[in-house]
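Long-time lurker, first post. I've been practising inverse folding by hand and with some scripts of my own, and I keep getting stuck on stretches where the structure tokens seem ambiguous. Below is the full token string for one chain I'm working on. Before anyone asks, I'm not after the true native sequence, just a reasonable design that respects the backbone. If someone could post their per-position residues I'd love to compare against what I wrote down in my notebook.
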């Protein structure tokens, strides 16, 4: 099921709240927020002095959390109908 734009924003906000501070900062660096330029996984890895695979693991965890939050949102939305 596809979400409308405002629903995607809501799920994104809920997802961000569930993340650890480090995971939150990594996703912020990756997508670029508050006027920052989006960074590559390699650039983020250099910033944190870790291997790129570590950043990929964090990104996968973030997307998993987003998808779980999306499913929760869809369940609550359909239960209200």
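-- Answer (accepted) --
I ran through it position by position. Result:
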């Amino acid at each position: 099921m596809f979400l409308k734009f405002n629903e995607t924003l809501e799920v994104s906000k809920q997802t961000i709240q569930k993340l650890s501070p480090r995971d939150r900062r990594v996703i912020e660096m990756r997508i670029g927020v508050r006027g920052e330029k989006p960074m590559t996984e390699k650039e983020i890895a250099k910033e944190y002095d870790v291997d790129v695979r570590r950043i990929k693991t964090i990104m996968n965890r973030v997307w998993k959390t987003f998808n779980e939050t999306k499913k929760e949102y869809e369940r609550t939305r359909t239960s209200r109908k």
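A couple of notes from the structure itself: The chain has a mean pLDDT of 92. The chain has one domain: 5-79. Happy to go over any region you disagree with.
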